Amino acid sequence: MEASPLFNAGKGAVFTHEETNELDASFMDGKTLNAGAVAGVKNVKSPIELAVKIMTDSDHVMLSGEGASIFAKEKGLEIVDPSYFYTEKRFQSLQRIKNKTTTALDHDDKKAAFYDADIKNAKFGTVGCVALDKEGNIAAGTSTGGMTNKRWGRIGDAPIIGSGTYANNLTCGVSSTGWGEYFIRSQVAYDISAQMEYQQKTLKEATKDVIQNKLTKLGGTGGVVALDKNGNMSFEFNTAGMYRASMNDKGDLVVKIYKE
Questions:
Q1: Distance of CA 20 to the CA centre of its chain
Q2: Which residue in 178, 197, 224, 232 has the most C-beta neighbors within 10 A?
Q3: Is-contact 204 230, C-beta < 8 A?
Q4: pLDDT (0 to 100) of residue 118
Q5: Residue 218 domain-assigned (yes or no)
Q6: What is the largest CA-CA distance in the chain?
Q7: Residue 110 pLDDT > 80, yes or no?
Q8: Does the global pTM surpass 0.85?
Q9: Residue range of the domain that includes 209
Q10: Is residue 221 helix, strand or coil?
């Protein structure tokens, strides 16, 4: 999915205010609770591969920026010119947002309204995956280009373990997509697992409470894909739609965009 221009990750990543692409990703192993994450890289072709490599080949959980790129080179991951991530559709999306903000009245509430509308009307393009193997091991991963027009090295929830990604064989695996600041403040992915572990909630009960109750009350928008230790799935979101797909152990594929 990082190689497809259809998603806000890798090749299809959105642009920052400075008209660059800054990529974030994370991965977690539910068996060991080991994890890896990367933030703000500009020249690593596959950020999720880098996140996995950080997990398996370093003593760290998160690397960022230039240091993460140096690590990727040392580990033999593919490095590309930043122009690789350019797509005309994403570039024009940035220009539209810039035009809106420059023509708006110079008032914080007015500016916030434009950002708010763009975010709330979005179906989000962050990519994520949760998988359960036949031995009961859960893994989750998330990759994104972040938020269009982001500035100052902004980092969202995707590379934050417990916010954008979480996996635990005792409970579930979760990958998040949405307005990252709220997912960080809510610790969305971990909260779902914690409710299952400490309150004995089902996956559906936990995801519904976190997304439709806690996140919504805080003002956050977005959703999660989640899979529990028994193979139950949940696709919970509070937006108009969320691109999602699932496959069971029989190979049955289901693809959806909007709510039921």
A1: 19
A2: 224
A3: no
A4: 46
A5: yes
A6: 58
A7: no
A8: yes
A9: 10-66+121-258
A10: coil
